[in-house]
Amino acid sequence: MNSFNQVSPLVVSTLGLLVLATLPVTVWGQTVSVSNVSVAYQQQAVLGCSLIGYLGAGPVIISIDKVSGPVSTSLFDQQNLTASLTLVAANYSDIGAYRCTAMIDGESVSQTTLYLQINGYQPPTGQFGFGLVKSSETQLVECPVEGVPGPSRFYWQRGQRINALRVTTQTDLLSGPFVDSVGRLDLSKAQNSDSGIYRCTGVDVAGGSGYQLFNIEINNVDEFLLATQWYFILLYALAGVALVAMVILLIWCCYSTRHYWFVKIKTTVVVRKRVKKKTYAEARRKSQETGQRKMALAHELQAKDDYNYDMFTSEQTTR
After folding, report:
1. Cis peptide before 149 (omega within 30 of 0)
2. Which of 49, 102, 146, 174 is deepest in the core (most CB within 10 A)?
3. pLDDT tens track, the chain, 319 positions
């Protein structure tokens, strides 16, 4: 019950305002009557308002003008106390609020608002939330604010509008993000310090607007590395070519001197075999000579022993 008592006054107030908005406006016993208009694009639209119940004798003038726009030329019917504004081909720029002004004796006694709507009109709207953009993945950012008709798009950062790139000379290139010829945000000249929150605003001819926020991260490589990377690439390429040339030259040298190396290796093997054989024969000969000398020495010692034995035997016999 308490919640009903709290909500019902608000509901009643809202319904009351809606009812009053649809009723004519009464001024000094007379009523200014208006009606909203909705037409198709490029179709004729007629906006009108009238003064009802006026019984005075003072001169009356009724006019219709757009609230935010130049003064319109409306037609006033003095006899019927009506005014009308005819738009032969209603455009999106004609959308909006119009003001019906009733003047009696040169004084404005009433100003009532009526609205013109064009079927199919969609005000510019952006997407919900932030859009994350990394310069390492893309260099062009397209504003997603869409509407019917297509809005004009503008980019902002830190409260300042980002303009299109202006180049005066080849050496006078502006740094930082810029807007290209088709309305995209170009990050090719952005610096790391340009990272942050960007705002894209779309505004159409009817005065409607919408926006989208971007969180843009600029991750550019160090300028020195960018300036010297081609030198390193060229240096590595030359080193690779030199290495390949050396390998080819080595293969060619080995192939062209294969006969020499074959003969050289064969000769070396033969010589080593001969040396080995000669060495073996020499060692065998020396071994034989050593054995012969040992045998001769043994015979000589044996002969001396035999001689001494014979001399001893003969001495014993003589005695």
Report:
1. yes
2. 49
3. 333 333 333 333 333 333 333 334 333 345 677 788 999 999 999 999 988 888 877 888 999 999 887 777 889 888 888 999 999 999 999 999 999 988 888 887 788 899 999 999 999 998 776 777 877 677 888 888 999 999 999 999 888 888 876 544 444 456 778 888 888 888 888 888 888 899 999 999 988 899 888 888 887 655 555 566 777 788 889 999 999 999 999 888 888 777 777 777 878 887 787 777 778 778 888 888 887 888 888 888 888 877 777 777 777 777 6
Residue 303 identity (one-letter amino acid): A
The answer to whether 90 and 37 are in contact (CB under 8 A) is: no
User: Whole-model pTM?
Assistant: 0.54
Residue for token digits 């297509």?
150
Distances in Å between the alpha carbon of 248 and those of 236, 239, 245, 252, 262?
Answer: 19, 14, 5, 6, 21
Structural domains in the chain plus CATH codes: 2-118 (2.60.40.10), 122-220 (2.60.40.10)
Burial of 184 (0-12, 13-18, 19+ CB in 10 A): middle
Helical H runs in the chain? Answer: 2-22, 223-256, 258-318
